[in-house]
Specification:
Chains A, B: GO terms for molecular function: DNA binding; DNA-binding transcription factor activity. The structure is a homodimer. Chain A is an alpha+beta fold. The first copy, chain A, has a single domain, classed as Arc Repressor Mutant, subunit A (Orthogonal Bundle). The first copy, chain A, has a 3-stranded antiparallel sheet. In chain A, helix 1 runs antiparallel to helix 4. At the A-B interface, helix 1 and helix 6 of A face helix 1 and helix 6 of B.
Chain lengths: 107, 107
């Protein structure tokens, strides 16, 4: 069985609105969040497919999303998997994630 | 009568979600938007009172908010007045502004 572990992430109570908004306020990061929400537990590699962003930039994007509390990253053997912290975000900022991820939302 | 004129601002149809999120994703800008929403047609000077931000930085913040389509700035004689584009934002990104400006929202 692969060793699965969580990469450190902020506690729900420490999430701040401006940090979350800033994390979501980038086209690549918002697209990653949309994809992660659409296909939970995907690998980070699969989620970034076709985005044409250099690997170091992509790592920065994942880090910013994780540190803001928008996504959880899990290390699963050689893979990293991303999951949107929808429940934590809804608890803390009701309605925000739904408004941001509305289907058909202009970007 | 003072000459009142609008400073250029983007058309509603050209507002993009990530630009709006980025504009709101800063503590000073979010505070300016909260205050502008609470006291419509205030002067920009009055809205920035007590924020302890250098004037050039403040000008940048207002510009970013205006260019993102979050606020309208009107030049009223020597004063500039700010108004949140609540209707345009609601039309374009339903629920977003309400979620961001919820009273008691942790910041």
């Amino acid at each position: 069985m692969a060793r699965v572990r969580s990469i450190p992430q902020p506690a729900p109570a420490s999430l701040t609105l401006t940090t979350v908004l800033h994390a979501l306020g980038d086209p690549v990061r918002l697209e990653l969040v949309r994809r992660a929400q659409a296909t939970p537990e995907s690998t980070c590699d699969a989620l970034a497919e076709g985005l044409d962003v250099p690997v170091p930039t992509l790592s920065d994007h994942w880090r910013i999303l994780r540190e803001a509390g928008v996504i959880t990253i899990t290390a699963d053997g050689r893979h990293r998997r991303a999951r949107v912290r929808a429940e934590d975000l809804d608890d803390r900022f009701p309605g925000l994630l739904a408004a941001v991820l509305r289907p058909g939302e202009p970007r």
